[in-house]
Amino acid sequence: MRLYTYFRSSAAYRVRIALGLKGLAYDAVPVHLVRGGGEHRQPAYLQLNPAGLVPALEDGGEVLGQSLAIIEYLEEVHPRPPLLPQAPLDRARVRAIALTIACDIHPINNLRVLQYLGEVLGAADSQKTDWYRHWVLAGLGAVEALLAGDRRTGDFCHGDVPGLADCCLVPQVFNARRFGCDLSAMPNIVRIAANCETIEAFRLAAPGNQPDAE
Amino acid sequence: MRLYTYFRSSAAYRVRIALGLKGLAYDAVPVHLVRGGGEHRQPAYLQLNPAGLVPALEDGGEVLGQSLAIIEYLEEVHPRPPLLPQAPLDRARVRAIALTIACDIHPINNLRVLQYLGEVLGAADSQKTDWYRHWVLAGLGAVEALLAGDRRTGDFCHGDVPGLADCCLVPQVFNARRFGCDLSAMPNIVRIAANCETIEAFRLAAPGNQPDAE
Question: Which residues form the GST N-terminal domain (chains A, B) (predicted)?
Answer without folding.
Answer: 1-82
